[in-house]
What does this fold into?
Amino acid sequence: MSQSAGKVTLAIILSFSCLFLAGELLADDIKLTSLKYKISNQVLMATATAEFNFNKDVLAAVQSGIPLYFELHIRVVQPRRYIWNEERHRVKYTFSIRRHALSNRFIITNLVTGQRGVYRSIELAIDNLSHLDYLAVLDTKELVKASNLLMEMKFKLDIKSLPAPMIPMAYVSRSWHMSSKWLRKSLDL
Amino acid sequence: MNAKAISLFSVALLSASLLCSLVLMSGAIQNSTKFGSLYAVLLLSNAFGILAFMIIIGRNIWKLIQQLRTKQAGARLTLRMVILFTILAVVPVTILYGFSLDFLRRGVDSWFDLKVSDALSDSLELGRESLDLRMRQLLLQTEKMANELSEIPAEITSLNLGALKNSSISTQPYAVPTPAQLDTMRSENRAEELILLNSEGVLIASSSATGNLVPNLPPEPIRAQVRQGQSYIGLDPIRDGNLSVRVAVKTNIAQNAQSYYTLHALYPFSNRINILADSVESSYEQYTELSYLREKLKLSFAMTLTLVLLFSIVTSVWAAFYSARRLSAPIRDLAEGTAAVARGDYTKNLPVESNDEIGFLVSSFNSMTSRIAKAREEIESQREYLDTLLSQLSSGVIALTPEKIITTLNPSARKLLGIQESNCEGKNFIALHSKNSDLGPITEQVLHLIEEGKEYWQAQVAILDTDVRKELVCKGTTVKTSGGTISGYVIVLEDVTAIVQGQRDAAWSEVARRLAHEIKNPLTPIQLATERLRLKYLNKLGDKDGELLGSLTDTIIQQVETMKTMVNSFTDYASSTQKQKTLTDTEKLLKGVVELFRSAYPSVNFIYNIDPNLPKIRVNMTRIRQVFNNLVKNALEASPHGIKSNIIISIRLVDYLNSEHIEMEIEDHGSGIPEKILGSVLDPYVTSKSKGSGLGLAIVKKILEEHGGMVALKNKKGQGAIVLVRIPSTGIKENTAITLGDL
It folds into this structure.
């Protein structure tokens, strides 16, 4: 009896895992198209462009006043031959996009820097979000001299920040798994 | 802490965790800011917790099924209690769940009233309209400022901030206002910020009421709109969510068609308007957010309620199992104890785990079993004593049920009735007759007496046991209960064959002694008188008369001799052998007797089969010689005349009745003993011979019994008869009862 119960539990865990993995693998609602960097005053600055493909569920949510939070993960890694890459540095930017009903504007806020942009339409807001200019990644003085370093970037919608009633369905719905794949750029410091 | 306590503690911990998790989840739904990020984790942990409970319950169900299959005591009771408890717990909870779900849906729906929705939309629209009105005023005001700037004389313009920032831009002086002019203009128009941009978007001049060094530049889309000649006006939440009116207009300050200046102004709203606008905004946002989440909220609440229901059900079912097992445990123990008692195991002592009525019941059970065990031991002891007594009794004892089923048949009864079967208990008494036809008289007699219904009865019954007549006295008692119901019968059998035989022998001895005494006395005078008569008158009479006298006197003398012989036989029969016992060699004595007859019976061959280690026995040699003489004579007379035949004589030492005996068999090949006299051939005057006195075997029997021995005769299966004689080799036991069954 206990063996069969164990099998059922394992099957449930595997099903959930498959669901999450499928969400990650099929992610193509956000596409990072370019990634550049610049060192200014010994600060590594990243500039990237992205393409967003907001599906109707997500658009409907934003237009209904649900704030969305996008996470931009930037990391510097040291590639290794046989095992996973060694992470040297990681930074996360969070952007929120929400509607302002009275002004009928859409506001994008960088929650790290506090920068805000007010846009007349969601399309303009998304267009602004697509251009990420000069995001500070790290102070190069902190980085030990190394060659073959890679800068990686990934954009994703933070499901956990959605209102609680939406979270269960968001986890199991394909519409809410908005994420880009990792975009890499070699660093020549 | 034992495994049971650990299990209980684990389940209690799991229940508490699940309950906390459900409370947190409920809080997360109502207020996302509290536990919103944990919502998915809480949901999953609840699901897994309930699954864990279901596994525990499944295990309990599986165990219960196994117990039911193996018909374990208390399993059915546990099943009934579990079903009852489960129904009692699940039905009300499910009904409550159904109504709660309905109320929940109605409650959530009631939040979204159409009037409220319209009112909120209208208030938002009203706000927008009022703000639009203000904005249009501000647009006109800004356009007026732009015109005023165009009218400023060119010579007084001196500052070109764009030239300072970018050397590539022409440094030619334009008709741009001075900062003082811009400040004046801003303060007169109550603007928060006023800036002038050239056509490239370069800041030319700025004035700010807040003193911000970095002016709030208009984004590119606004500049593009102005570039196309369209003024821009918009309501923007600029800083800290406070609303400001942003206005951008194209000025007439220009030297050529390509270059122009943009005047950008920010007008703040009063705090009061900002507070009201924020209130309308937040209320509307909350309402639209809730409207959007309406179905999802219902689903989440329903999911939480369902989890609560499942939690209630699984904990109730588990509690039902736990309670049922706890309640049925003593009853199961009692059932097992009762079953053990039914099997005859009185050693089972049940644990008393509570002080309630069930504990009292268990305690009473333990007391009862110990008393029964004690009583049983006493009964067993008495039974063993009775069995020993019955087995030692020389009398046969038979106990019957009212249905005549044998309940007791002691060894003596078995021996008396010649029953070979060792286990007759449980069989019908009548069945004895069907197995052994010789027992017919006794079974018929006993049944007849039982049928008469007397309380006590007695009868003497003669039966044949292996061709030997046996006299039995049956004494019967009807056993009744205190209520007078017949509960059985007890029959006591006593073998009186020896007594009857002894009485008969004594009678015959007395007859023989009197006959010898009464007949022997006149015989001698008769014989003497006859001889004198013959002597005196035989020669005096003529030939004819003399011959007649001779013949008559010869007959008289001959008959007298015959009568003397008969009287001597009577004397022998009546005489005792208790005197003149000497150590005698049996083989020598026998062979001596045989030699006396060998010449008279030349056709008969004697075959000896004698044990060489025979001991000498202390007997009256004369009397034992007479025994051998009679038996050998009988065997020779029984053997066919003129035909060669054998007489086999075997003598060996045997153990009989726990003492050594000399056993002798004389086997002839004659016609055997007629069946009709086989049972009484040892009685006086019973003979198959035409000239026999019928006293030979009676004398043999008497002599042997006087020596503590016995004699028995039986026919061989083929032809002839066998005489078996046993004489004790050591000492002579007086009054030893010997029965045919012993042979």
User: Anything to note?
Assistant: The radius of gyration of chain A is 19 Å. Chain A touches chain B through 35 residues (CB under 8 Å).
